[in-house]
Design a protein that fits this description.
Blueprint lengths: L7 H17 L1 H7 L44 H21 L6 H8 L3 H8 L2 H20 L9 H16 L2 H13 L4 H10 L1 H17 L9 H13 L2 H7 L7 H17 L2
């Protein structure tokens, strides 16, 4: 059976679950500009997946803003391992074959298990692709946040943040997923926008907060506009490294040169005020 084949009750189920998602997850409507219906919808006949939707405020493996229609309540350890295996298999398959060249059968063959479990966890191929992008976006953000810098001197804290940021961008899987997401952005504009909000925009906001913290500590001038400064600083430390790694990897400088560049950027911010 083709992945796109469906029936009337499947469509009713999809619409019903998306209605519930918009009610339970308001960030979906904020990111996708979807109005929330005011009247509740009846569950379609035979529908039995509603109980798998998260309760308001429940923690799930993936953010409400990116996953497909079949959201999950907190999973058992076995369920989490199963989702992890599917995500890893899907990542490898999408990167190897591209979005259009990937089928769910390829992913199932790599991950093992059944088509039913994949549908239960992610809904369809688009939902799985969205989950892969969000999973790696979240991991990139976690890598940048790995060390609490609030107790460090400004020079040390900015160096740690900048280094984590640059080397997370240069991770091979992040480079290839960035390349894939750029090619698919016209087909999935909501996903691209959501990935930006959950990744670069979030990191920019985190840096702004850290610069505000440094101002309160007297380590940066209070008159310095932190949103503008954060944008300038991330642009400086990122330089052309990401593009070079994507387009001409043989010209990439060694890590020691990248570290020296980051040190110069921190010095420009702190010593030329």
């Amino acid at each position: 059976m083709a992945d796109t084949k469906t029936n009337r009750n499947d469509i009713d189920s999809y619409l019903y679950i998306n209605h519930k998602m918009m009610t339970l997850c308001p960030d979906v409507t904020a990111i996708m500009d979807i109005p929330v219906p005011t009247a509740d919808l009846p569950a379609p006949a035979g529908h039995n997946r509603v109980t798998r939707l998260p309760k308001p405020g429940a923690r799930t493996l993936f953010s409400c803003s990116l996953v497909g229609p079949f959201m999950q309540q907190p999973l058992s350890q076995r369920g989490q391992k199963r989702q992890q295996a599917i995500l890893e298999a899907a990542t490898e398959t999408f990167l190897q074959n591209g979005y259009e060249g990937t089928t769910l059968n390829m992913i199932i063959a790599r991950a093992g298990g059944s088509r039913r479990s994949l549908y239960d966890y992610f809904g369809d191929k688009q939902g799985l692709f969205s989950a892969v992008i969000r999973y790696h976006t979240d991991k990139l953000v976690e890598d940048v946040r790995a060390i609490d810098v609030t107790g460090m001197p400004a020079r040390e804290g900015l160096t740690v943040l900048a280094r984590n940021f640059v080397f997370a961008l240069l991770e091979p899987v992040n480079l290839e997923l960035y390349r894939l997401l750029i090619t698919q952005a016209p087909a999935f504009p909501e996903l691209a926008r959501s990935a930006y909000l959950a990744g670069p925009a979030l990191l920019l906001n985190e840096l702004e907060k850290y610069l505000d913290h440094l101002q309160r500590q007297g380590q940066l001038p209070a008159s310095l506009p932190t949103p503008h400064t954060a944008r300038q600083f991330l642009g400086m430390v990122k330089a052309e490294f990401q593009l070079c790694a994507l387009l001409s990897p043989e010209r990439m400088p060694p890590d020691s040169a990248i570290d020296a560049h980051i040190g110069d950027c921190v010095a420009l911010l702190l010593d030329n005020r």
